[in-house]
Write a structure and sequence with these properties.
Length: about 350
């Protein structure tokens, strides 16, 4: 069944139930060896020292526990990112906590890092057959004070390091109290040296260097972006993922669910995310690549993000509205501009 026919059925369910149903259908299709999406053409890219078959990836949040990796890999992504995972299991925020806004091609979520804990994710990743590029996105438990957040990130990093192609430090979700305080200069100066030190130790232990990417919010004033870029550069992060969901409600004013609390994603985030990438590109050295995410709803959006300075793109909310065909659309759009971009 094509997504054009499936989407109306899924949209009759509440957003979180539709999410779960979609993953079950993908797992079933993979188990039956059904073609889940056309295979996109090759578009290799080398970023963070890693070889990507194409530059279009899955953003974190869709598969929080790494339980659907093999099915998702059949959709044609060049890489997958799972999580956000925390040291201990936690239920997240009360339901309902995810809301579609179809008139704006948007979603608001306040999930709150609901996940089964890092040990379950490690088990699931080990059980998967997928051997492509896998990012693992880590966070802190909701009840860990910000001042002790480093211990949570280090604990997760130790467990996922042997399995990850790269590790993402999520300090930008708006749905865990005070988490975004970790983006402040003083907090970064405490957190990032802990993580880089642990990265060096783990690289020696395992005989392989796993890059660290930091995922940031879109809700910075322009004058704050330079300071943020300086801290990320000073602590030698390997990549920046820009951006997470926004607290802005621009683009959904007056629409059903538009006033729900949580992070806004989808088409209303497109321009804000693009602006953030352009600002970061002015202040980050080329040796720190960017991964663009947020409001990529078409191949043209992906191409515009690459032209603005990112090396890879990730999809999530765009898939809710366009389905798996969006992956191939983005890959083809990026193949078309690659000669010009080079």
């Amino acid at each position: 069944m094509s997504y054009r026919w499936l989407r109306p059925l899924l949209f009759r369910l509440d957003a979180e139930a539709a999410h779960a149903a979609t993953l079950r259908l993908l797992d079933l299709g993979a188990a039956l060896h059904l073609p889940l999406a056309p295979v996109p053409p090759p578009a290799p890219a080398r970023v963070m020292g890693l070889e990507f078959p194409n530059p279009v990836g899955l953003a974190a949040g869709l598969d929080k526990n790494g339980a659907h990796i093999d099915a998702l890999a059949r959709l044609g992504f060049g890489f997958l990112e799972v999580g956000t995972v925390t040291p201990r299991p936690q239920p997240g925020n009360p339901r309902p906590r995810q809301f579609r806004i179809p008139q704006a091609r948007a979603v608001i979520n306040r999930m709150g890092f609901n996940n089964l804990g890092v040990d379950r994710l490690v088990h699931n990743v080990r059980a998967a057959r997928y051997r492509g590029i896998l990012g693992i996105n880590i966070g802190k438990n909701f009840d860990t004070p910000v001042e002790r957040a480093g211990a949570d990130y280090v604990a997760c990093m130790r467990k996922v390091y042997p399995l990850a192609s790269y590790v993402v430090v999520n300090i930008s979700s708006p749905n865990t109290a005070d988490l975004r305080r970790l983006q402040e200069a003083d907090a970064l100066d405490r957190l990032l040296p802990q993580l880089k030190g642990e990265q060096a130790r783990l690289a020696d232990q395992h005989g392989r260097y796993v890059p660290i990417a930091v995922k940031i919010a879109p809700d910075f004033a322009p004058e704050q972006v330079r300071s943020l870029a300086e801290r990320l550069q000073a602590h030698a992060v390997d990549a920046v993922i820009a951006v997470n969901t926004t607290l802005s409600r621009e683009g959904v004013e007056g629409l059903p669910h538009g006033r729900e609390s949580g992070g806004l994603s989808g088409a209303p985030l497109t321009a804000r995310a693009l602006d953030m990438v352009r600002l970061l590109a002015r202040h980050l050295p080329q040796r720190i690549p960017m991964i663009g995410v947020g409001g990529i709803m078409s191949g043209a959006d992906a191409a515009e993000r690459i032209a603005a300075g990112v090396s890879l793109v990730q999809l999530y909310t765009g898939l809710v509205y366009a389905g798996p065909a969006l992956i191939g659309d983005c890959v083809r759009a990026l193949r078309a501009i690659r000669p010009a971009a080079a």
